[in-house]
Amino acid sequence: MSVKYRVKEQRRAERLNTRVLKSEIQGMPRKKMEMIYENVGDRTKTNINTNRQLPLQDGWTYYQSSFYFISTEKKSWTDSRRYCRERGADLIIINNKEEQGFIKQITCENQLWHWIGLTDIDVEGRWKWVDGSTLNTGFWRSREPNGGRDENCVETHSSGWNDFYCNKALKWSCEKKLF
Ligand SMILES: [Ca+2]
Ligand SMILES: [Ca+2]
């Protein structure tokens, strides 16, 4: 990826983040805002103490009680997950259609597939989220999942989810729940 493209991509992500953040903050109860700021403050202190990277650096967005990181790089599913975990988060877990809508908006904007925290690596066809919970309803693209033992990690796009080769390098989204 060229430097110019990377800068453009980063700016686009920032613009999107600002927009989502603004729409979220407007109409949020004061109490909830205070809790968020307290929580961020605590974690900032913790991170300074342990000399780790701040979770609220560029690329993090707040939406419905979670912080999300939208990558500008590409990594394998395992390396993407490691990136999230090193920052106190994990790959995104999509619990409902609002959250799918949120991630869909982002993937539409940058026109690329993103890893999510769903895999059937342990038992073929048994889809599990990174927190160990089993998938109830999904947002699969038509005719997916179709990869059998070859495709065990899930990527999302505007058209929905697809099982894919875990070692392919894609963008990814991390999620850190606040409450
Ligand atoms: Ca599979
Ligand atoms: Ca597939």
Which percent band covers the strand fraction?
A: 15-25%
According to CATH, the fold-level topology is Mannose-Binding Protein A, Chain A
Tally of domains? 1
Name the overall outline: globular
Structural class, by secondary structure, is alpha+beta
Oligomer: single chain
Helix content: 25-40%
Going by CATH, the homologous superfamily would be: Mannose-Binding Protein A, subunit A
Q: Which consecutive residue ranges, at least 5 long each, have pLDDT under 50?
A: 22-27, 37-56
Ligand inventory reads: calcium ion
Please tell me the CATH architecture by its name. Roll
Broad CATH class = Alpha Beta
Q: What does the average pLDDT come to?
A: 80
SSE string: HHEEHEHEEEEE
Keywords:
single chain, 179 residues, eight-stranded mixed sheet, 4 helices, 37% helix, binds calcium ion
Summarize the structure.
With 179 residues, this protein is α+β, with helices and mostly antiparallel strands. It has one domain: Mannose-Binding Protein A, Chain A.
